[in-house]
Amino acid sequence: MNPACGATYAIDQIIVSCTACGSLLDIKYDWAKLPRIKSLSYFEHRWGTKGTAAEGRADFSGVWRFRELLPFYRTEDDIVTIGEGRTVLQQADILARQMRMNPGNLMLQYEGLNPSGSFKDNGMTAAFTHARMVGAHRVACASTGNTSASLALFASLAEMQGVVFIGSGKIALGKLSQALDYGALTLQIQGDFDACLRRVRQIAVDKPQMGIYLMNSVNPFRLEGQKSIMYRILEARDWQPPDWVIVPGGNLGNCSAFAKAFDEMRELGLIKKIPRLAIINASGANTLYELHTKQGVSWKNNWYDTGAVQKFYAVMDENNIHAHTVASAIEIGRPVNLPKALRALSIMNGVVEEVTDDEILEHRAMVARWGFGCEPASAASVAGLRRLLDKQVISPSDSVVCILTGHELKDPNVTVKYHTGIDLKLAQESAPRSEPHGKMSNRPVPVEDSLDAIILAMGGDPSAL
Ligand code: F0G
């Protein structure tokens, strides 16, 4: 993604950063050599295809029915799909009234309706397709929960071994239960998400003998799939872009994918207007807000102030500052896609806002009462809308789409605590434990935050690597 470097790599290479300059990678298409897409409405005819017949598989997927816009696969046989992306955009008039927006102008995009219950399935289908193309057998990720649930599901159905790195006690119960149930090797690392990501990258990049294909959003193929969230929103609106797209910001992959989708559609002459982007941080995990909104770090002349970012992280390290928020999905201090997010803000004339945990909790409850519900991180988008309305950045007559990234049932603890004051998490910790006895029991493996311990837990021999 660094134009000053300009190195390129073949599509079948397994790398997640530029070996020349270290920057993140972009998937680039030579559109002139590909069949021309005349209009976006071309894609509509696939919508009603049934997924039961083999030839309908790609059309049935809410990601792959737009496959001409992510044409990195060789043939349709490469595509790994489980019927992801059949999600809905819903007009939320009661919620709009509560937010003092004009009726008809607030829409919610329910990505929690994906097979694993979050937007991650959009990206996993693309990255697993690439993994299959390059012959990967073992896939891994660090996760605040949803990536691990999605990876575990796809790995099991694609018959690959899934390994997930999660911060001990850091992920919501619904997500942990999914990773175990779908059969992934679940390493509970004594650390937070940022520590897990560092470790899994070390193993994927520095220990090639471990044969790990990395599934985090540093993998640019993930973002190719996540572009489809924007295609579906346009499709649901008869190809009319809204004024605003609002999305929670964690590792900043989703917002980056959205901007890439619009940038490419503009380049292809498929749209004229690009919506504005609002990325919402939790105030306890607000690196992008601090750097962009407070310090003015932005995308200029195709790059950004890397010194300011390094300084910010050095201060975090010196003061032992870690991310903390009730929205565990976005509890991330060092978002790896920060450069792409800065670029996204420039492409979509975007803003970054922060919201407190209380605002997240109140707006989550509002979405539950007047919508289909969502998990806490997702509600950051609606809480952010409220702030941006108050600041008159967004007007009640603007058309707004909030992305609800994950299903309400991902995090029942937060919901029960909100309504009853009872913290189920604490209740569980003090409860007596019994040995699991199911034939398929897949226990999480506690591991200290050390490379050797992790390799050992993955069945490797640290002394031999
Ligand atoms: N919302 C939910 C429900 C998420 O799970 C995440 C990220 C985000 C928003 C933020 O998206 O990282 O693209 O900015 N969850 C990741 C995970 C980090 O491991 O499941 P982002």
Would you write up a description of this structure?
There is one protein chain. This protein has 17 helices and eleven strands. The model has no long low-confidence stretch (mean pLDDT 95). The strands form two sheets. Strands 1-2-10-7-8-9 form a six-stranded mixed sheet, with helices on both faces. A five-stranded parallel sheet has the order 6-3-4-5-11, sandwiched between helices. α5 links the parallel β4 and β5 (185-189). The longest helix has 15 residues, at 253-267. The protein has 465 residues and is of the alpha/beta class. α3 (120-133) crosses α4 (146-157), α4 (146-157) packs parallel to α5 and α7 crosses α9. Bound molecules: ligand F0G.
The N- to C-terminal Cα distance equals 31 Å
Derived structural class: alpha/beta
Radius of gyration over alpha carbons? Answer: 21 Å
Gross morphology: globular
User: Number of helical segments?
Assistant: 17
Tally the beta strands: 11
Beta-strand proportion:
5-15%
Order of helices and strands: HEHEHEHEHEHEHHEHEHHHEHHEHHEH
Nearest-integer average pLDDT: 95
Could you name the key traits of this structure?
alpha/beta; binds ligand F0G; 465 residues
Explain the layout of strands and helices:
Layout (H helix, E strand, L loop, with lengths): L56 H4 L27 E4 L1 H6 L7 E5 L9 H14 L4 E6 L2 H12 L3 E7 L5 H9 L3 E5 L3 H14 L5 E3 L5 H7 L1 H9 L7 E5 L4 H15 L8 E7 L4 H8 L11 H13 L19 H10 L3 E5 L1 H14 L5 H15 L9 E5 L7 H9 L3 H7 L14 E3 L3 H7 L8
Parallel strand pairs: 2-10, 3-4, 3-6, 4-5, 5-11, 7-8, 7-10, 8-9
Antiparallel strand pairs: 1-2
The site of ligand F0G has 22 residues, from helix 4, helix 9 and helix 14.
